[in-house]
Amino acid sequence: LQISGYLNLLANTIDNFTHGLAVAASFLVSRKAGFLTTMAILLHEIPHEVGDFAILLRAGFDRWSAAKMQLSTALGGILGACFAICAQSPKGAGETVAWILPFTSGGFLYIALVNVVPDLLEEKNPWNSLQQILLLCTGITVMVLLALT
């Protein structure tokens, strides 16, 4: 088995830990914020997990082992949620989410932009670059509109 498979599993566990933090902290804010965060993470995770599964297969894992290892990384999400709940301040959820939500949101934005911006800069076709920028702005607009409702 190649080391890239194990590195991918470690990265996926850390990623799932931050997802667990974000979901639990969002539910501490409100049910609406919790459900919106959960839906956003699910929409992100489905293609992400398929890609990670393919990485594990290319690293030499068989299908059953790759599936078991992918499932084991989901424990990172449960640990993250438990951590967020246990970190809840006696003063209330506001103390907890005051650092968890900015931490996870900043991490998600950083990862997204680190992956997107270099591709935008390498794009030769201006029409494709414009489409990608418009879609990025559309995503930000949707988030703002959901936050306002």
From TrEMBL:
Please give the Gene Ontology molecular function terms for this protein: zinc ion transmembrane transporter activity
GO terms in the biological process aspect are:
intracellular zinc ion homeostasis
On the tree of life, the source organism's domain of life is: Eukaryota
* One CC-aspect GO term: membrane
> One short Pfam family name for this protein?
Zip
Q: Which reaction does it catalyse?
A: Zn(2+)(in) = Zn(2+)(out)
InterPro entries (alphabetical): ZIP
**Keyword Cell membrane (UniProt):** no
Per the record, membrane topology reads: Multi-pass membrane protein
Q: Where are the transmembrane segments?
A: 69-87, 99-117, 129-148
Compartment list = Membrane
Q: What are the record keywords, sorted?
A: Ion transport, Membrane, Transmembrane, Transmembrane helix, Transport, Zinc, Zinc transport
Query: Family, per the entry?
Result: Belongs to the ZIP transporter (TC 2.A.5) family.
Q: What is this protein called?
A: Zinc transporter ZIP13
Q: Write down the species.
A: Erithacus rubecula
Q: What lineage, starting at the top, does this entry show?
A: Eukaryota, Metazoa, Chordata, Craniata, Vertebrata
Q: Which gene encodes it?
A: Slc39a13
